[in-house]
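Molecular record:
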Amino acid sequence: MNETIYERLREHLDSLPTGYPKTQSGVELKILQKLFTEEEAEMACQLKPLPESAEQIAQRLVRNPEKVADLLYQMSRKGLILRLKIDGVNQYMAMMFIVGILEYQVKNLDRELCELFEAYGQEAMYKELIRPQTPQLRVIPVQESLEAAMEVKPYDELRKIIEAQKTIALAECICRKKSSLLGHPCSKPLESCFIFGAMGEYYIENGFGRRITKEEALNVLQKSEEAGLVPSPANAQKTGGMCNCCACCCGMLKAIKLHPHPSSLVKSNYFARVDEDLCAGCETCLERCQMEAIFMEEDLAKIDLKRCVGCGLCVTTCPTKALSLYPKKPKELYTPPAKPMETYLQIAKEMGKI
């Protein structure tokens, strides 16, 4: 096996905004060797992080257009690169490892691949995910935790995010699927990840997810809230997707939870507060909180604001309505970038990629 081509591919992936760092164990190369043939690895190294047609790529590389088109299409079917249809023509581009290649393997997982992914996450990738100041995902409140009187921006309201979409794909959560294959099954819903727009069409065409209606999406959100999942849309006002995460499986939430001050890593515009006169000390909220931000003191619930990420899960199941969400101070409010491209350009700058 030509290990040089896989090291070149690792360097290429590491040059993209969210990175693909080298490890002492070399597990990142084992992942690439399992996913890519040498021919695919060589082609992946040639792709740009912007869409090009197969004809343009063949011309740039001085290669046979038909063979290039066939190879690119097969690679995109395997989830190794991204395929978008623009003006009726397939366009191809390099994709980051996370969010990207890893998530595209949702239908190709086996135990060996899961073990490699988990080993790489523990050794390097989980730390890499929380390194930039601009995160890939945000946290927004579950719908039922928002009061009618609140003035909520469209990008912070689940229902409005769903209603704005023309294409919605629903996919299995790769994090929970990976945990199950590793012998740690999660009781929370498996089908819980939304992909929107052109990316959603890619998921549907490849069989990575299925097309659903807005009404079905809202039902998924309701079941996700009931199960205690944290709504985590992509960090842009025009978002390309949304995960519903649990801290027991989700690599990003696990990394955030391990930090002493999770709220400093999460872009959220809300925080929870307890009305001590209403608190019955039932401890229901302790089980709902994914960040362990709630503790008991003198039989009353207390909020550690350094750990609270403002998801509102504690609010919706409080039997005495003692918990409420409040917006942060105006100077602390976060406005996400307008489009995903702006998000990843900012991440690339913070990671020293550009």
Remarks:
- The chain has a mean pLDDT of 93.
- Residues 76 and 200 are 14 Å apart (CA to CA).
- Residues 111-129 form the longest helix (19 residues).
- The domain at 3-108 is CATH 1.10.10.10 (Arc Repressor Mutant, subunit A).
